[in-house]
Amino acid sequence: MQGLWAKCESCDEIIYRQELEKNWMVCPHCEHHHPWTARSRLAGLLDPDTFEEFDKELEPQDPLGFADSKKYKDRLKSTRKNLGENDAFISGVGRIDGHQISVGCFLFEFMGGSMGSVVGEKVTRVFERAHELKCPALLFSASGGARMQEGIFSLMQMAKTSAAIARFRTGNKPYISVLLHPTTGGVAASFAWLGDIILAEPKALIGFAGPRVIEQTIRQKLPEGFQRSEFLLEHGMIDAIVARKDLRTKLGQVLGLVG
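User: That's the sequence. What structure does it adopt?
Assistant: Structure tokens below.
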């Protein structure tokens, strides 16, 4: 159960939780972007009462009988019970400023937003649905990457989702990719970077391997802010950084131009 007060992860200010939630989970003192649940994000960004969820019934299986410190099937069971969600991705159809979109959003709180077979299938269906409806596709990515508990079945989703995007593009509709904190691993190395328009939240960590792993591998110190959205914008890797409170307006503008 959450308390009445929250402490900012950046400036250490104590914030009344209702004030934080009304401010899109952004600190009113330093504008640090705190984690925001997928359902709250969709409710806040889409036109009211326009979201229709699809594929909610899909549940991940345990094809490898995988176990680390805990059996994969037990980890799935406990996570589903705690969150009330079947997997790390929500998808459906909605509208922003009246423009129809096929949309999907990661739940980082579900096993680090990792991509297994079900997540990959649901991402693929976002693009298949957009192609069928002849509307833009919009994805919000926040993930630690491929789900190791599903092994090669997880890695296959990188190619599968990328192929779905290639087919979607034959319909000449845009794919808008919004990169959240963090977007890493196999998700960053596949569909997250394939957007026609790539937006990111401020100070989001975006990349394949984390900076600590890279430094240990190449035995060199990385530049300040390496893999943060500001660094990526400066080097031409993304199109814009958009604060959370401005994102709905920005998406409406983009969809009005290219949707």
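Residues 151-169 form the longest helix (19 residues).
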